[in-house]
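Forum: Protein Structure Q&A
Topic: Joint prediction for protein chains with partners

I've read a bunch of threads here and the consensus seems to be that you should model interacting components together rather than docking separate models afterwards. I'd like to see that in practice. Below is the full input, 454 residues plus whatever partners are listed. Could one of the regulars post the assembled result?
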Amino acid sequence: MKHTFTLTVNGRNYEREVEPRLLLSDFLRHDLGLTGTHVGCEHGVCGACTVLLDGEAVRSCLLFAVQASGREVETVESLDSGPQNLHPLQHGFWEAHGLQCGYCTPGILMSLVPFLRENPNPTESEIRDLLSGNICRCTGYQKIVEAVQLGAELIQEKST
Amino acid sequence: MKPAVFDYHAPRTVDEALGLLAQYGGDAKPLAGGQSLVPTMNFRLAQPAALVDLNGIDELFYLRQGEGGLRCGAMTRQRSVENSTLAQRLSPLLHEAMPHIAHTQIRNRGTIGGSLAHADPAAELPALALALDARFYVRSLTDGRWIAARDYYTGLFTTAMQPEEMLVEAVFPALPAGSGWAFDEVARQHGNYALCGAAAIITQGEDGLVKNAKLVFLSVGEGPVEAFQAANMLVGERPTPEAVRAAADTAATQEIDPVGDIHAGPAFRRHLARVVAQRVLTRAAARASAEVSV
Ligand SMILES: Cc1cc2nc3c(=O)[nH]c(=O)nc-3n(C[C@H](O)[C@H](O)[C@H](O)COP(=O)(O)OP(=O)(O)OC[C@H]3O[C@@H](n4cnc5c(N)ncnc54)[C@H](O)[C@@H]3O)c2cc1C
Ligand code: FES
Ligand code: FES
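Posted by a regular:
Agreed with the consensus. Here's the joint model:
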């Protein structure tokens, strides 16, 4: 049986009819065409599918789309408004070479947004601890840590 | 992979949820944080006929000080306990161990009740519940009962609950005066399931002798494993480094029967158990001494 539900994604309201078994990750990618959210493992381990649900970082592969009913979802597409207008965190990743293939990047960015909101000046070990929830097979993480540090600085510069 | 077809229900009250569980007669599953259930459904290891989503039941989300200690509604997120000063004050052992459960993104959804009910032998919460003598309130449509943690865990991923029952509340009692506590584990990477972990509680008398001791392991058996013999060796003694080492030795050689997997064989797990037991007993004893001397 299909369920009709409404939700907000990146500030836009949607009403859709879906099967309950549809994962939020697939709903975002296939129904809304928001392919920035990546899918790696579908069992919560890789972190590529991380999005914000009411402002908190969660795995979209472990949520059914209907569970987002009446809630607010933010994906990586919410961060910037075009290549000329990157979010400071994205700018940090660009400058500090925080990505290679980019598969893991959307999930990492969406994990970082609430993290840096709560803790604008994280230590290296706090950054590494947060990153333990996201797998990257390219970079070896060192550049990601540096990108987060730069991103955090850029966010603070922008807000002062 | 994708989950098989199921009916989805989002009740607003516990009674409604229990009615649905009864209606499906064991073929429905409660959906808490989904951090263990949804992966198994994605792999089709689980194909429940229906999910009863508990996320809209407001009465299951709470942490409060009450009779018997820290009372915790089944749907309380692991992340809320980690961020709670009330939990830190009333149950510092529980609070200290929280960041060892998975990653922030998982703890944002994962619940106390879901982890306790899932009964994964590698999970922290069942071992902590056993160490703290926690009690669980379990309800069905027609009945309600309290189950002590020690009677709740009956084997690999199994509990004393019936399919039509639901865990509603967990109570974590405060520790007696003169108690010290510690939790530690070894994992391949922070946030991964532990290869071995342990919780310890030591209660000391004014005379500096151990009045009561508890040592509980995770990841070395079919559920949380309490090392009674090791704990008894410490009672009536001073918790000297030698006494602690002997107790940890006994626990690791005689009281656990770890199996191997791709990450660690039985011998390595036994070694880790000795090391972790020694660490937690030492820390718990130091904290107990500090308590007694103030
Ligand atoms: C990548 C990853 C890493 C993880 N690492 C760890 C770790 O290191 N340590 C750890 O302990 N856990 C770990 N977990 C599991 C996580 O902690 C889960 O949150 C937890 O095991 C289950 O809680 P949940 O709320 O998500 O329950 P769910 O997944 O929703 O449910 C689990 C089971 O319990 C049943 N259930 C749920 N609530 C109730 C209730 N109130 N009454 C009766 N039955 C109920 C469900 O029907 C289901 O069978 C990890 C998970 C992931 C995805
Ligand atoms: S796809 Fe969701 S965590 Fe890997
Ligand atoms: S950049 Fe390729 S997986 Fe991280």
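DSSP finds twelve helices and 14 strands in chain B.
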